[in-house]
UniProtKB/TrEMBL annotation:
TM annotation in the entry: 12-35, 96-120, 132-154, 183-203
Major localization listed first in the record, in broad terms: membrane
GO cellular component, one term: membrane
Stretches assigned to coiled coil: none
Pfam families for this protein: L_HMGIC_fpl
Family note: Belongs to the LHFP family.
Gene name linked to the record: Lhfpl2
Keywords attached to this entry: Fertilization, Membrane, Transmembrane, Transmembrane helix
Lipid bilayer topology: Multi-pass membrane protein
Species whose genome carries this gene: Ptilonorhynchus violaceus (Satin bowerbird)
Compartments in which it is found: Membrane
Record protein name field: LHPL2 protein
Gene Ontology BP terms: single fertilization
Length: 228
């Protein structure tokens, strides 16, 4: 018989697992890993009196994508163009970034799988006589290690030609040059920290769903057990 067991700790772990998976996925897909050198206003903008009122634009560069601004002659209109600069995996700017993409993708795939499974932990608490929370916690720990490897390798690629074109000639491995780090990099770091927190907290979720109070309500014949 299926028992639906909901506790504060198990629900919090489920929500954190989903948030972490989405945060890492969004960061990986974003082009805001590096914020490049400020580009001055175009001559058309200056001629039209627009240069003094607008701040210089700073293009952004991600692991496989980028955002840049294109100026149009007519009405001096500007469009921000975002998209992948690499049409395939081999065109990613640096071998280190290729390794970063692999490790991050593996970690994110595991996190998304755990996030999907976590939704069903209210009904299923064990897999092959092993606690589903402990199994998911172990997978989150492994995903966290993949994410750490990816984030360590990422700065090693700052010396590639693509990064130099955005960050200036002084950019090199682990040196930003004229660039600054974007929100996607910090989001990936924050998501990695939360991944390990989820891995540890999964043990608390397992304890909460197998507590004596839960067992008492199961023995009373209740199918829906909600403990706050």
């Amino acid at each position: 018989m299926c028992h639906v067991i909901v506790t504060c700790r198990s629900m919090l772990w489920t929500l954190l697992s989903i948030v972490v998976a989405f945060a890492e996925l969004i960061a990986f897909m974003s082009a805001d890993w590096l914020i490049g050198r400020a580009k001055p206003s175009s001559s058309e903008d200056v001629d039209n009196g627009m240069g003094g009122s607008q701040e210089p634009y700073r293009p952004t560069l991600g692991i496989y994508g980028r955002c840049t601004r294109i100026s149009h002659m007519q009405f001096s209109r500007r469009d921000t163009l975002c998209g992948p600069y690499a049409e395939n995996f081999s065109e990613i700017a640096s071998g280190f970034w290729q390794a970063t993409a692999i490790f991050l993708a593996m970690g994110i795939m595991i996190l998304c799988t755990v996030a999907f499974v976590s939704v069903f932990t209210m009904c299923v608490q064990s897999i092959m006589k092993k606690s589903i929370f402990n199994v998911c916690g172990l997978l989150q720990g492994i995903a966290g290690l993949f994410l750490i490897l990816g984030l360590i390798l990422y700065p090693a690629g700052w010396g590639c030609q693509k990064a130099i074109s955005y960050c200036g000639p002084y950019a090199s491995a682990y040196k930003l040059g004229d660039c600054s780090l974007g929100w996607a990099f910090y989001t990936a770091i924050g998501g990695t920290v939360l991944t390990f927190i989820c891995a540890v907290f999964s043990a608390q979720a397992e304890i909460a769903t197998s507590s004596d109070k839960v067992q008492e309500e199961i023995e009373e014949g209740k199918n829906l057990i909600c403990l706050l």
